Amino acid sequence: MSSGTFGITREKKIISSGARKVFTPHAPVDDISHFFGREEEASRFVSVINTDGLHVLVYGDRGVGKTSLAITTCRVLLQGIMKGGKYIEKRCDSSDTFESIALKVLQALEINHQNRETTQTTNEGGKASVKIPIVGAEVDSHRQSAVKILHQVNLSSPSWVAEQIQSKAGIFLIDEIDAVADKEDRKKLAELVKLLSDNKSQLKIVLVGIASTGADLTAGHPSIQRCLKEVHLKRMNDDDVRKIIHNGFKKIGQIPTEDVVKTITDISAGLPHFTHLICLKCAEASVISGNKHVGTDVLKAALNESVKDSENALKDSYTNCLHNFNKPHEYKIIVQGAAHCKGVEFRASDIQQQIKVFVKFDVDQKVVSRRLIAIAARADSIMEKCGRGYYRFVDPRMPSFVKMLHGADAQSAV
Ligand SMILES: Nc1ncnc2c1ncn2[C@@H]1O[C@H](COP(=O)(O)OP(=O)(O)OP(=O)(O)O)[C@@H](O)[C@H]1O
Ligand SMILES: [Mg+2]
């Protein structure tokens, strides 16, 4: 077997090429040398963190690069300005609550989070001295009364948590807060930020999550705007996407053609996950073939691999949506046309134009309109109506996925 048992020989070649260190579709960037663009957002982030009483909220669509911006900027900050500050990271999932998030920061800061008892001794003259623990108690009078005090941990109270952590310095990054299901928990997080801000704590909170407005992530807490500054991360611009492609291939000694760079940039549509995914598949194929030039033939095969490696959620919703129609091929063309539209929102006439250009097919606008209505009317559809005659994809990553699929289809036709 040329690729060795279970493809081990192939894997060894790819690993030693360094391609998977440079192109990381499934992991955020945490190293400044792999981080491109975002200058404006990163400087806003830095200046907010360095202002007393201010904390940061990074929000935007899925996969735009929120975690990468937050982690890379925090690293730079901790190495440069906030030397000695602690970095704590918490990735939330649907089982997380305010308590579990609070527990993470207390543990990381090595703050006691168990109920404990101390003894307060009162001397006859009324002078009190408290020693913790009890065995270390010092008494300067023969007559004394001892009172046991129970220090009760209250993880569900933002003010209790704030009291414990506010004297510390560092950054607490709380990622994927959109996954925290209960609004009350998100509200409490906002309250914690407010309390740390009021006390000018040097422990800065960075909240990160998928949302179209910052308020979605803080459950609309009314007085949070003053101390929690928002960084709305939009899609990357094409120049920065091209930088990811050129720099990445250069690092591993490969040379993509201009056509390849153009197609990857177009498919990415400002979502760097797709840039990394397609580049990685191209790089792997080139490493195996031993040809450092990455041309359109390599790209087409790479698109096929990229589709296979895409998130199941995207593949399933696309397949489920189309396969229930009588003539799925006709609907597929409508979806492809929609994926190629320039704006996020599109009309039947826009789709008709794109079908002409990309699918080389002349279709009546009324037919497009009827199909569009039928697609959007489906439960769990990939498209939705967003205004009179206007539609959009429910998942903003879907157009890139559809374009990859279209490119991979073109491959099978060759
Ligand atoms: N500024 C950047 N330069 C280069 N690559 C980037 C940049 N930002 C993000 N990426 C890449 O894009 C992909 C998505 O990034 P990231 O995980 O940070 O996005 P996200 O918005 O946090 O995604 P999610 O919504 O799924 O949490 C990753 O492959 C990451 O390596
Ligand atoms: Mg993320």
Automatic annotation (TrEMBL):
SUPFAM superfamilies linked: P-loop containing nucleoside triphosphate hydrolases (SSF52540)
InterPro entries: AAA+_ATPase, nSTAND1, P-loop_NTPase
Residue span(s) of domain AAA+ ATPase: 52-237
Superkingdom of origin: Bacteria
PANTHER family for this protein: ATPASE DOMAIN-CONTAINING PROTEIN, DNA-BINDING PROTEIN-RELATED
The name this protein goes by in its record: AAA family ATPase
Organism: Diaphorobacter limosus
